[in-house]
């Protein structure tokens, strides 16, 4: 290697690696772990700075433009690396990454949907208690609360029909509790059955159930806030190999040529990719185990 300025290929490789780092950082920052941590540590009604408002607006604009196709960002990044590295291997890797990223995004969306439904069950209990204390009979109170919250999805029709026509309301609630995120409806069904069979106060039982569900939700949020640091560590570990490639390109070592066009580089690339995947999977599994109740 001569002692002059970096070659055009090295500069291009540096730009490609910087682009990869930027996209990876955007995907990491798009996660809502930081937002959950802020909700736990600070008051919900705190004033937001104009810079934060602009950032949220820009993030919403990007998410709206991408829609449900964010996994396809892997292909343009892989194409840039393939052109600069003069190899088809990055394109193949990008094609393999698309379904993996899609599955991760869908799992994350399902988790958010479960959390939204769990919060909706808490709101449903509060709404039913309010309707009962306003003087409405239980069936009417449940019907109004179900329509107001709208968290039951496909089970809403069965619960509404049972509440409107005097059917088996506890059975309908128990059936709805089998759907993801609606576990709390099993407690509502138990309160309803006890109130009907034993004459106990339904409003008092649902009020206590709401408090218990709200406390459990608060504990989950606090646990996720405490695990946000662990998730950040996982993200940093995932970015370290990319930063290493950027450092090598900045020094003029041309790591893309070494990794993609030499036998030793291909062996190192395959071994490093497997170790990276295994390490990230192991770390993510440990963190997810800590999130489980």
From TrEMBL:
Topology of the protein relative to the lipid bilayer: Multi-pass membrane protein
Places the protein is found: Cell membrane
Record-annotated Type II secretion system protein GspF domain positions: 127-246
InterPro entries: T2SS_GspF_dom (IPR018076)
Source superkingdom: Bacteria
Ranges annotated as spanning the membrane: 12-29, 73-98, 227-252, 264-284
Pfam families reported in the protein's UniProt record: T2SSF
Keyword Membrane: yes
Main location: membrane
Keywords: Cell membrane, Membrane, Transmembrane, Transmembrane helix
PANTHER family associated with the record: CONSERVED TRANSMEMBRANE PROTEIN-RELATED, INTEGRAL MEMBRANE PROTEIN-RELATED
Protein name: Type II secretion system F family protein
Species whose genome carries this gene: Streptomyces pulveraceus
Lineage per the UniProt record: Bacteria, Bacillati, Actinomycetota, Actinomycetes, Kitasatosporales
